[in-house]
Amino acid sequence: MAGLIDHEKAFISLFNQTARYHHRHKVFEDFVSCSVIALENRLCFSEKREAKYLRIIGGYEKPDVVRMAQLLAHVVNGLQDGFCDFLGNVFMQLELGDKYRGQFFTPWDVARMMAQLQLGDVKAMFDEKPFITLSEPACGAGCMVLAFADALNQAGYASHRYLWVSATDIDPLAAGMAYIQLSLCGVAGEVVIGNALCDERRRVLLTPGHYLGNWSLRLHSLRKKAA
């Protein structure tokens, strides 16, 4: 529609103007790290995280620090327009993927189709259980998780109430992208930096939705019933 901002294009344009004195991949990694810290510290402030944030932005000129905040605003607004893999899309359009590490992100339409096939009859599923859990062992930027949550929302079941997610990726950058997007979309769960194949959990990031939905208690109650 005319007059609407294409936040992906705006993000890419602004990113290409940001900190040209650094390698583009470093700028993107620093943007993700600072955004993760900003989201975590709004919920539970940590001096250690704040010190890391200040160390990162200390390597940038003031106009570029402002641009970093503007980049996050485009992510926020882009996801408010509708669930999508915003960061995965811009990452690939910026040609930051490393083909040798298999960093290619699933197209949104494919992810949505897969989510609908997995969910099947949503109403019948919730006739039997109060909520469901989803494990994603190679989450990338969180596309499949977001598609799953979106499919639930479209079926009339608010994902923040009916879904808890454990999303893992071995790449800290991908996990950071997933944490940002799941947090901004209100998805409850954890994002784990580690290797799901050997149950390695180097770092665990709990989304705001996990805390706001009292999911620790809800999961504990479910485990007690199953015991």
UniProtKB/TrEMBL annotation:
Name the InterPro entries on file: DNA_methylase_A-5, SAM-dependent_MTases_sf
Is Methyltransferase given among the entry's keywords?
yes
What superkingdom heads the lineage? Bacteria
The answer to whether UniProt assigns keyword Ribosomal protein to this entry is no
DNA methylase adenine-specific domain mapped to chain residues:
99-197
Q: What molecular function terms (GO) are annotated for this protein?
A: methyltransferase activity
Signal peptide span: none
The Gene Ontology biological process annotation of the record reads: methylation
The record's Pfam families line, in alphabetical order, gives:
N6_Mtase
Keywords in UniProt for this one?
Answer: Methyltransferase, Transferase
Protein family according to the UniProt entry? Belongs to the N(4)/N(6)-methyltransferase family.
Annotated protein name in UniProt? N-6 DNA methylase
